[in-house]
Amino acid sequence: MKKLNRIVLVNWYLLGAEEISIRGNTAIIGPTEPGKSSLLDAIQTVLTGASKRHLNYNASANDGKASGRSIRSYILGMIDSGQANAKVFGTQPRQDATSYLALVFEDSITGKESTVGLALSASLAAPEEDVLGRFVLSNFGARKTDFIDAMEGKSYKAKPWIEVRETMKKVCLDPYIKSGSASATQYINRYLEELSPSPDHLITLDSFLKNFKNALKFVPIASPTRFVQDFVLAEAPCRLGPTRSL
């Protein structure tokens, strides 16, 4: 089994360059507004390949409904479209930014790490963000130093995606690295193959996305029947018209 053991974030919401270790059952706690849901949304962004068809930011706090947050606002570190940044946190939105999001998984048997992640960019001058690249790195555990250059004091600068991409090609054996124009579905299928227990027990795209979306809502499960319907059974619509006519 491969378990999440590290989250790497560069220029995501109000976070600069961070590594968050995950061990066992982990809780994210804190008062309102410090960015707890932004971590869950970062995980969601990586696992959906930044596909807006599958994203539902801050789902647990909005009864499963879409929130006003976006990939672009997260990259630029914007609160309430940027208007509340200075008032609430004493910060300004980033003018331009390159963001890196990476999830590092560890094989519980071999101890080897694999990385799944995205490179993103956005600008206040542009209405939409860009997905620069998607990557799946077998037997390689990314660190924040793979994505940033340290500067004077505690400051840093995000490395250009081209530089990060070429380094990945050199240090990783058979890396999966695709440009943002490539299919998010292909990327999801590739990392599901990487994270599946074995070639004989592959995690399927449809069942994963269904269960992942349901899990993000954090809603109470009223009965075993509801749990089986929502998290176990795959949808299999059937046509009753021809049957009724017999």
UniProtKB/TrEMBL annotation:
Signal peptide: none annotated. InterPro entries: P-loop_NTPase. Gene3D superfamilies: P-loop containing nucleotide triphosphate hydrolases. Pfam families: AAA_29. PANTHER family: DNA REPLICATION AND REPAIR PROTEIN RECF. This is AAA family ATPase. It comes from Marinomonas rhodophyticola.
